[in-house]
Every structure is written in structure tokens, then in C-alpha cells.
């Protein structure tokens, strides 16, 4: 995950992506 999302720090980028996916899943769950 090195450089994923253009951050250069793979771990932070990975956590950020997981957080975004979690927010999307929660949003879909609330709306549905």
C-alpha cells in the first residue's frame, strides 16, 4: 500500500480508505 492515495505513507492511506468505506457503509445503512 506504499503511496496508495498519493500520501506516501501506506499505513495512513490504508486507514483513511477504511475510514471512508466505513462512513459510506454507515451512510447507506442509515438511508436504507
From TrEMBL:
<keyword id="KW-1133">Transmembrane helix</keyword>
<keyword id="KW-0472">Membrane</keyword>
<keyword id="KW-0812">Transmembrane</keyword>
<protein>
    <submittedName>
        <fullName>YjcZ family sporulation protein</fullName>
    </submittedName>
</protein>
<dbReference type="Pfam" id="PF09680">
    <property type="entry name" value="YjcZ_2"/>
</dbReference>
<comment type="similarity">
    <text>Belongs to the SscA family.</text>
</comment>
<dbReference type="GO" id="GO:0016020">
    <property type="term" value="C:membrane"/>
</dbReference>
<dbReference type="InterPro" id="IPR010070">
    <property type="entry name" value="YjcZ-like"/>
</dbReference>
<feature type="transmembrane region" description="Helical">
    <location>
        <begin position="12"/>
        <end position="31"/>
    </location>
</feature>
